[in-house]
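Q: Convert this sequence to structure tokens.
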Amino acid sequence: MSDFKLTYSTMFAPPPELHQRFDAALAAVRQHRLGQTHGLFLDGAFVPRAATIERHNPARLSELLGRFALASVDDVDQAVAAARRAWPAWRATPWPERVALLRRAARLVDERLYEMAAIVSLEVGKTRMEALGEVAEVSAFFDIYAQQMQDHAGFDHALPNDPLPHLVSRNRSVMKPYGVWAVIAPFNYPFALAGGPTAAALITGNTVVLKGSVETPWSGLLLAQCLKDAGLPDGVFNALVGDGGTVGEALMRHDGIGGITFTGSYEVGMRIYRAQAQRAWPRPCIAEMGGKNAAIVTARADLDVAAQGIVRSAFGMSGQKCSALSRVYVDRTVADALIERLQTAVQALAVGEPQLQTSWTGPVATAAAAARHAACVRELSGPGARIVARGPLPADATQGHYCAPVVAEAPLDHPLWRREMFAPLVMIGRVDHAEQAMAEANASPFGLTAGFFGAEDEVAWFLDHIEAGVTYVNRPLGATTGAWPGYQPFGGWKGSGSTGKALASFHYLPQYMREQSQTRIGG
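A:
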């Protein structure tokens, strides 16, 4: 295993030992870790609270995962105060020391990969490979941002001296942290989308207050334990769990924070973004706000590759990815042939308990998601709409939040073409030509990911015209999904992102700092 590096590419052919280690970790978690009561992480310590929430395995609702402390508005004040106290010393810590500490944290994530992946799988309902991939991403984020900090020498750059004949005027550009950085993480990637922004904020000298989702509260505490064990000073990282309407609202409006990273819905993201802009002076807000991702299939596409990419992207993690494929626009001359292939592929999907090696996908994470899926399926009974493929359900489907994968065909004015469903359902629409497909794909207010299946001489046209931040061409591993840190930067255009800068890209880290131009005479 020492030579095996888990990425989304190697996930498709892992060695047997990977499964053996996951099974052992899962058994240990079930024996020793379930049913416990967990506190908040404040100022370097896990602290209990009277108010708690129970969380259960979405694949096996009778299995109690644990009881988790719920934060209050007062806890937000305490967390921000702790982070503000810790900030002067943390920002003064030489950047090579911050880099070394974050790399220690990355190695702890690597060491605890299987145990933490087992917990993430139980908490979110992810398959073992999805859970292992999510945890491994955090290690990659930490390493990438540490390396970028090192490559840029702490983002402290000497500039040319002023051309003055009688004075020496020295110039520098120095990037400096903002202060306390708030991170609001979603339920679907509670470890990766807490760990990635946290790593960026910490490496650049900010301190952090994380608010995890009430649906998936355990992951943020696992991150806190790794950072604590790596030697992060008290108060530099704090982790809360609470609902968005009170705890999230209090955090994003708090006068003590300097910036915020949010991942979630467009409605909430835009409200947070506008709130930062309407202050006495604007605060930076990095908001990733989902997608309504499209794939185009031309008359010259390899339909076997297209069908594989569509199914993997639409139904991986039961469609609960902001990058999941939601819309397919196919040339009508090949539409029936594509649908036939999709029917075969969907009916062969292994839907079951996600911790089992044999399961390809599992349940949705919440009862609300299952209800949303059912409501969308009911909407397909209208004129012109039809379900063309429906995947299987496990025999014990009523024991969890299971939803059958669905492929539906509907007129291009059907409301589900516009709604972000976040469930295992993909829409198929017939078009007369590629230009019509492109117009439909770009008509969405979102622009996160997009896919294309066609001939080689059509690719440049697609890349020139598609309005999306992450693009995939003829990719069987996933039509619109599968970005991995260090290989594909991940960020959206239009209503999918507030900055146009992507996670793990060359341009992401500077967003957590502000530039100071320094001119000194003499010295």
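The first helix runs from residue 16 to 32.
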